[in-house]
């Protein structure tokens, strides 16, 4: 490639000013873009009214070659929504509590210089995007996208109950406190659902999660079969009965998924393990859910209010992400 072509390249940086040290990010980006021979980048801040979608669309309109996003999972989700379907790559500068997409793509979550370097020297990978139509209590509908997880029940209550001041101090461990307080609500959710337009079924659950990624903070492998680019959702429902039911779920997720499945011998042992009634996995390209009563909902770790149901489907390979070349 000619030197003049390299110098014509330009990045945009979308940052959440409440999550990042902007001066530190500016220094790291300036050094990396200079080393790569790129032009000065475009800097766009998120706002209370626009968490990143509009900024991403503006960056695409400016003709940038890559969009760096510095913020938490919610900022990443909003920027991905704006970049969906475009040819512009998203580069992650993890700055939040979970940084779940970065973890699933083996992008450094604690080394700013490494993640910035990836933005300018990495390779592009197409991943799936989840698209979801939310049914509201007043009968209206809203369409959003997500790249990690959509959920309701205990999961959404956990997000709603997470104390911001604790989250700021101890990071993702704040969710442990939120889970403990959320579990006091033992009332189950009764739902009707269809997978890929099949037969309608009913189920009572504490939680349902629709996932594009499987690995969570703390090295918890919630969805062991999930891949970000397989064109499928992995769905898990939790329906424990008392302490014993929660113990079964914890053993399945932490020991079987998190330990056994990380080696070839362990995977064989895990394959012999019996399924537990408290945990059920589903897979498909589309899932439609109707609820008997309104429930809290979350997308990629952010509250999205009360819903009476949802229709979620996969948009395959709809987002380009810049990942380490190795």
Overall description:
The chain has 326 residues and is an alpha+beta fold. It folds into two domains: 3-121, Probable inorganic polyphosphate/atp-NAD kinase, domain 1 (Rossmann fold, 3-Layer(aba) Sandwich), CATH 3.40.50.10330; 130-316, Sandwich (Tumour Suppressor Smad4). 32% of the residues lie in helices and 35% in strands. The strands form three sheets. Strands 5, 6, 7, 8, 9, 10, 13, 14, 15 and 16 form a ten-stranded antiparallel sheet that branches. A four-stranded parallel sheet has the order 2-1-3-4, with helices on both faces. It has a two-stranded antiparallel sheet with strand order 11-12. β8 (189-195) and β9 (201-205) form a beta hairpin. α7 (154-161) packs across α9. The longest helix has 16 residues, at 242-257.
CATH top level of the largest domain? Mainly Beta
Give the topology string: H per helix, E per strand: HEHEHEHEHHEEEHHHEEEEEEHHEEE
Mean pLDDT: 83
Provide the number of structural domains.
2
Question: Helical region count?
Answer: 11
- CATH architecture descriptor text of the largest domain: Sandwich
Class of secondary structure makeup: alpha+beta
Strand content: 25-35%
Instruction: Identify low-pLDDT runs.
Output: 169-184, 263-274
Helix content: 25-40%
End-to-end CA span: 21 Å
Query: Which topology of the largest domain does CATH recognise?
Result: Tumour Suppressor Smad4
Total strands: the figure is: 16
| Envelope shape | elongated
Oligomer: single chain
């Amino acid at each position: 490639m000619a030197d003049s072509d390299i110098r014509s390249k330009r990045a945009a940086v979308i940052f959440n000013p409440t999550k990042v040290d902007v001066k530190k990010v500016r220094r790291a980006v300036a050094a990396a873009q200079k080393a790569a021979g790129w032009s000065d980048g475009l800097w766009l801040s998120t706002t209370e009214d626009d968490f990143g979608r509009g900024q991403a669309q503006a960056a695409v309109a400016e003709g940038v070659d890559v969009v760096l996003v510095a913020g938490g999972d919610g900022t990443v989700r909003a920027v991905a929504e704006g970049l969906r379907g475009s040819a512009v790559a998203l580069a992650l500068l993890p700055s939040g509590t979970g940084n779940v997409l970065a973890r699933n793509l083996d992008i450094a979550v604690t080394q700013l210089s490494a993640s910035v370097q990836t933005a300018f020297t990495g390779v592009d990978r197409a991943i799936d995007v989840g698209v979801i139509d939310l049914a509201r209590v007043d009968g209206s509908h809203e369409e959003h996208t997500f790249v990690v997880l959509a959920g309701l029940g205990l999961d959404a209550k956990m997000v709603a109950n997470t104390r911001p001041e604790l989250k700021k101090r101890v990071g993702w461990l704040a969710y442990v406190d939120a889970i403990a307080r959320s579990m006091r609500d033992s009332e189950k959710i009764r739902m009707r659902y269809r997978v890929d337009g099949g037969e309608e079924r009913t189920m009572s659950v504490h939680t349902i999660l629709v996932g594009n990624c499987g690995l969570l903070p703390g090295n918890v492998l919630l969805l062991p079969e999930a891949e970000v680019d397989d064109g499928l959702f992995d769905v898990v429902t939790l329906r424990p009965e008392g302490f014993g039911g929660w113990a079964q779920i914890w053993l399945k997720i932490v020991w079987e998924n998190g330990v056994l499945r990380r080696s070839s011998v362990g995977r064989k042992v895990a394959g012999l393990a019996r399924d537990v009634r408290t945990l059920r996995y589903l897979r498909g390209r589309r899932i439609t859910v109707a609820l008997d009563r309104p429930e809290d909902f979350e997308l990629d770790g952010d509250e999205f209010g009360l819903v009476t149901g949802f229709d979620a489907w996969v948009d395959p390979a709809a987002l380009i992400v810049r990942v380490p070349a190795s």
